Amino acid sequence: MEALTRWQRGWSASRGWTDVQCIDDVTVVRVGEPQRRVEYVATGQHATAAAHLALTDCNPPGTSWLTITGPADRVAADLGPLEIVRTNWLMTVRLADQVSYPVPPPYALELSATPSVVEAQAYGYGEIAATGRMAVLHTGAVADMVQTDPAHRRRGLARAVMTALALAARRRSATTAYLAASAEGRHLYKSLGWTTLTPLVVARTTG
Ligand SMILES: CC(C)(COP(=O)(O)OP(=O)(O)OC[C@H]1O[C@@H](n2cnc3c(N)ncnc32)[C@H](O)[C@@H]1OP(=O)(O)O)[C@@H](O)C(=O)NCCC(=O)NCCS
Fold first, then answer.
1. Which pTM was predicted?
2. Do residues 103 and 86 both lie within one domain?
3. S-S: 70 plus which of 2, 39, 98, 201, CB 3.0-4.6 Å?
């Protein structure tokens, strides 16, 4: 699934995960963090191969993670003893079609960028109120780590952050964007014109 691959590449770029390999149609991202040593990304068709890799690697229990296209009830049997942690949703939008919103006063937005990642921060009342990132790889962009501090939610900050990120990505010639939405984030992205491609089952080894 091309969208899954494009999302994984952008997600890895956003997080600075550079050790990526493909084994048996499973993308293996060696993350190297204490709680997430590795991330296996695959379509549901290759869930058994991904589960086998997770169950036979040498990482401590609970530190090998999987993201598999769902739904959960269809892939659960292939994941065997792995713990299903949650479901996210792979979403997409043509950047030109994303609905735009201004920053609500008295907040202000600041953008910073590296060659492949644009970051937006919304400030207000002396605090960082909302943040988000977009990795831009050629014509594809991937949004990541969009969050609003609980005290500043439902004021339009996340959609202002998404508006600024989309504009910056378009300036870099990106045309299509992807992201893995949480249950909470899904409402936000739907309201901005994003559509859902598939559920993503997030699982891990157990202790
Ligand atoms: C999801 C999140 C980023 C939304 O931030 P926010 O600044 O409150 O979002 P906005 O105010 O810009 O919301 C814009 C629209 O999105 C929708 N929306 C946002 N949060 C929603 C929620 N919890 N339930 C239903 N709709 C929601 C609404 O349509 C909202 O417009 P409205 O308030 O006029 O109805 C925030 O709740 C958050 O940080 N959650 C925890 C982290 C997370 O899940 N991030 C998303 C990762 S993919």
1. 0.95
2. no
3. 201
Instruction: Please indicate, yes or no, whether residues 134 and 175 belong to a single structural domain of this protein.
Output: yes
Residue 128 and residue 51 share a domain: no
State whether the beta carbon of 147 lies less than 6 angstroms from ligand 1: yes
Is residue 98 domain-shared with residue 192, that is, in the same domain? yes
Alpha carbon of 49 to ligand 1 centroid (Å) = 35
Per-residue pLDDT tens digits for 74-130: 999 999 999 999 999 999 999 999 999 999 999 999 999 999 999 999 999 999 999
* CATH code for position 171: 3.40.630.30
**Mean pLDDT score, 2-25:** 96
Q: Is the CB of 146 under 6 A from ligand 1?
A: yes
Find out whether the beta carbon of 155 lies less than 6 Å from any atom of ligand 1.
yes
Express each pLDDT in 151-178 by its tens digit: 999 999 999 999 999 999 999 999 999 9
Domain count, the chain: 2
Q: 132 CB under 6 A from ligand 1?
A: no
Residue 85: which domain range? 2-90+200-204
